[in-house]
Amino acid sequence: MLRRKTRVVESVGSVGSVEGVEDVPEADDPLDAAQERRVRAVLALGGVPQSDLLDGVQQVRLRLLERAASGREAPRDVSAWAAVVASNLAMDWHRAKRRQERLGERLASLRQPAAHPSGEESSVLSLAVARGLDELPDALRQVLVLRFYADLPVRGIADELGIPEGTVKSRLHSAVRALRTRLHEDEVV
């Protein structure tokens, strides 16, 4: 199967036009038709959906071309090497799918309302946190309030206060540790 690809020989002209485009046979394709079919089969048997097979084949081609471009010698048996790479890609696809599922589950659990403590417990906790915040040094309290009550990211806090991100992180760590210690001492948590 002979495919054709387009290669840009010169620069891109004005908007919408490309100068110096020529058709070149794809003679430098690292996989022949039989190897491509084998890669597709390995990916499909590995559980990769039909819609992602072309991407998998392209990844195998890319890795073979990257290997050649890096100066390493070509594999002795390109077909076997391509099958192993395809098998690894199928495993990577499954790992990514599981990672996405776990992330979806965590996000869904965050959306569900958590079991809130009773009104009295909530009041005691709120008072203890307020007392703990009052006891923190101003710099620690400031970053803690900006991070957890104003919901600013670390970078945003650093920009607003004109301090390095590392300082914000250090202050947050110290503030949380001090507040946690205080709440444990009061036996609130």
3D architecture notes:
By secondary structure, the protein is mainly alpha-helical. The chain is 65% helix and 5% strand. The protein has helices at residues 33-45, 53-69, 78-111, 119-135, 138-149, 154-161, 165-185; strands at residues 4-8, 21-25. Strands 1-2 form a two-stranded antiparallel ribbon. It starts with a strand and ends with a helix.
Mean pLDDT: 79
H and E order: EEHHHHHHH
What strand line-up does the widest sheet have?
1-2
**Tally of individual helices:** 7
Query: What gross morphology would you assign?
Result: elongated
Largest sheet data: 2 strands, antiparallel
Strand content: 5-15%
> Low-confidence spans: pLDDT under 50, at least 5 residues?
1-25
Query: What is the number of E strands?
Result: 2
Quickly give the structural class: mainly alpha
**Percentage of residues in helical conformation:** 55-70%
Radius of gyration: 29 Å
Span of the ends, CA to CA = 69 Å
Which terms summarize this structure?
189 residues; mainly alpha; 65% helix; 5% strand; disordered N terminus
Write the layout of secondary structure elements.
Elements: E1 4-8, E2 21-25, H1 33-45, H2 53-69, H3 78-111, H4 119-135, H5 138-149, H6 154-161, H7 165-185
Antiparallel strand pairs: 1-2
Helix pairs in contact: 1-2, 1-3, 2-3, 4-7, 5-7, 6-7
Short description:
The chain has 189 residues and is mainly alpha-helical. The chain has seven helices and two strands, in the order ββααααααα.
